[in-house]
Every structure is written in structure tokens, then in C-alpha cells.
């Protein structure tokens, strides 16, 4: 009986040794390749490649967009959808997204593209900024305080510097710091009534001081510009560093 059991075990061992492992190896290779392709696809999909052109209506975003992408001026109207184009820089290619500035649309498109953003270009109308300072500061605060964009480099482009009544970029910076300080107080009061863990916003600046852009961890640069006159040197340098 013991001899029979040994013979059976020997036959099983021989059969096991003669098994063809090729299908199993091929299946493992297919699984590994599939996982690698999924990883590359997800990484490419989540890569930040966009530069968002943002600002209020009539700040000059679309004029700037056509100047950079088409290298020409075109008659523009209030945008109701985004404009997309590719800009070749010294470091590669960037996708520019001209986000509509209308109050009812800009939040929707910002949410759509913010997780793909590599940088923000925020345009300010240097002629009407004093009249629109509250809206400008409130919109800029929303962008700077959003967790998806709170670490991105930001260029605050003071457009229409060719016009006689335009305010300089240093003056606009001071105006925005004062107004954002007021916006921050309002937003903070609103957050006290909700669960702060469920918000996508971060606190801007230092809580023990009035707001200044220098308090932010992200790089924020103010620069003069005239999209109409193609005076874009500072912005071009900014885009080349991305």
C-alpha cells in the first residue's frame, strides 16, 4: 500500500513538472502592462498644463488671448464660453484657457479647469479698477483662496496701461491689498457659521495682520501691460518660466 502511494505521488510530481506555465506568464504580463498604461493615462490626465486667463468682463482677456495665440487683434465680445489655444514657449507648449468673465459663468468654468491649471493670469482693467475694486478683489480672493490653485504662480496683469487714466501696477497692488483685507473679513465671518473642514477655501495671509500679497506662499507678480499695443514683455517672461 505504501509503495502504491509513493508511485502515485511520483506520477503527480512528474505531471506537475510537465505543466505549461506559458498562459499564466502571459496573463501576468498583460495585467502588468495594463496597470502601467492606466498609471501613465491617469498621470497624463491629472497633469497641470493649462494657464487660465481670468478677470472681469472687459478687462481685455480675449484681446490678450488673440494677441498671444493668433498674433493679431480681433474684434471681441463678451464671451459666453471659454476660448482654448496653444502657446509655444522656450520650455515647451502651454494651453491657454480664456475663461469668461461674466459673474454667472466664471465660477462654472473656473471649477472646470482649476485642477488642470499650471498658472493663473489675472487681468485688471487699469482704467476702471477704482470703480470695480470690490468685484475685482472678490473674484481674485476666490481664486487665490481655492485649494486647487492656492500654490500656483499668479501674474496680476494691469492691462490698458497705454490709456491716460490708467493707474499704475503699484497703485493697483495697494488698492487690492486693502480691499482683499475687507473681503477676507467678510469671508471669515461667513465661514464661522459652517463646517470649515467641508470648504475648498484656505485662509489668505496672516490672521494677525492686514493682508499683503507678500504673506502668501505662492508667487504673485504684478506687471503692467497693454494687450492692445502688444506691450507684453513682462507677461511673456512669466509664461516662459512655466
**Given the helix and strand composition, which structural class is it?**
alpha/beta
Structural Rg: 28 Å
Biggest sheet record: 6 strands, mixed
Strand order of the largest sheet: 2-3-1-4-5-6
Q: How confident is the prediction overall: mean pLDDT? A: 86
**Helix content class:** 40-55%
Coarse morphology: globular
Order of H and E elements = HHEHEEHEHEHEH
What share of the residues does DSSP label as strand, in percent? 15-25%
Taking pLDDT < 50 over at least 5 consecutive residues as the criterion, the unreliable ranges are none
Notable traits:
single chain, 242 residues, alpha/beta, 17% strand, six-stranded mixed β-sheet
Report on the structure:
The protein is α/β, with parallel strands linked by helices. It is 45% helix and 17% strand. A six-stranded mixed sheet has the order 2-3-1-4-5-6, with helices on both faces. Helix 6 links the parallel strand 5 and strand 6 (220-224). Helix 5 (129-145) packs across helix 6. The longest helix has 25 residues, at 22-46. It starts with a helix and ends with a helix.
Concise overview:
The chain has 242 residues and is of the alpha/beta class. The chain has helices at 2-17, 22-46, 61-69, 103-113, 129-145, 169-191, 233-240, and strands at residues 50-55, 83-89, 92-98, 117-125, 154-159, 220-224. Helix 5 crosses helix 6 (169-191).
